[in-house]
Amino acid sequence: MRTRIALLLGIVLVAGACAGPGGGGAGSPSVAPKTFAAGSSMAAIVAKGKLVCGVKFDVIAFGFKNPTTGEIEGLDADLCRELAKELGVSAELTEAVSKNRIPFLKEDKVDLIISTFTANEERRKEVDFSHVYYKAGQSILVKKESTVQKVEDLVGKKVCTGEGSTSEKNLRAKGVTDLLLFQTYTEGAQALVDGRCEAVSTDDSILFGLAKQFPGTELRGTLFSDEPLAIGIKKGRTDLVEFVNGVLEAMKADGRLKALYDKHIKPFTGKDVEVPF
Ligand code: GLU
């Protein structure tokens, strides 16, 4: 009897250890794999045993690799974990920078892109999107001593932003064309601090994290674009779009979505996030 209890305890302990937060790698599912229609996108993911999500690794509040724990933290990372849980599989988080996002979906390198990804008409020609889960807008980050107040003040000046982002396009449309493009926004903020550009410009929701990481910088001006963030899915996987939307709706209904906003976004904005769908 004692051995059986010890054995059972061992199993529970091992299971407990595996169920811990998975960092960049796979975290074990907390529920058994679920059954989905044969041939569906979800059945293929269950057969693989893991849901692979492309997320940012350097964006505080959305997808950020904690340097101490190695854990990927943030709203995007946790959305992946919730979706994996609903499938009954592990969540595997892989880094997807702005310009990799559409290729990663097309080449089946990931199942989902949850990487501060703006849903827009141009991108809809190439990929599908879930419901919008966060409404961001473009802003600017400058050094506190800068005289730049708004995006218009940046015409003729060098500005840092992410390659392959809507931020890059929006700046050009505003006549800000002298751009220093980076794979990650952290590199852009470092360039700002080093004096290689006058401002970093992208989603306000990325900039508020950078302002915290890089003291001596601050956001300025009003938002000059709409950036509705949504989960990217390979074109044609409509069953997966429906599944993801169903999970998002359930998370809205039972408060899980609000809990994630409160955990990851509210500390920066001080405001409740309204669910945008
Ligand atoms: N949300 C915008 C985009 O999808 C800018 C931020 C980013 O590059 O992730 O392009």
Percent helix: 25-40%
How would you sum up the major sheet? 6 strands, mixed
Compute the CA-based radius of gyration. Answer: 20 Å
Order of helices and strands: HEHEEEEHEHEHEEEHEHEHEEHHH
Q: Name the poorly predicted regions.
A: 1-26
Mean pLDDT: 91
Number of strands: 14
Structural class: alpha/beta
* Strand arrangement, major sheet: 1-6-2-7-14-8
Q: Indicate the proportion of strand residues.
A: 15-25%
**Bound ions, cofactors and other small molecules, one mention each:** glutamic acid
User: Please, how many helices?
Assistant: 11
Q: How far do the termini sit from each other?
A: 54 Å
Q: Tell me, briefly, the overall form.
A: globular
Can you give a write-up of this model?
It is a single chain. With 277 residues, the protein is an alpha/beta fold. 38% of the residues lie in helices and 23% in strands. It is built from eleven helices and 14 strands. Strands 1-6-2-7-14-8 form a six-stranded mixed sheet. Strands 11-10-12-9-13 form a five-stranded mixed sheet, sandwiched between helices. A three-stranded antiparallel sheet has the order 3-4-5. Strand 4 and strand 5 form a beta hairpin. It is globular and about 60 Å long. 43% of the residues are buried. The N terminus is likely disordered. The site of glutamic acid has 12 residues, from helix 6 and strand 12.
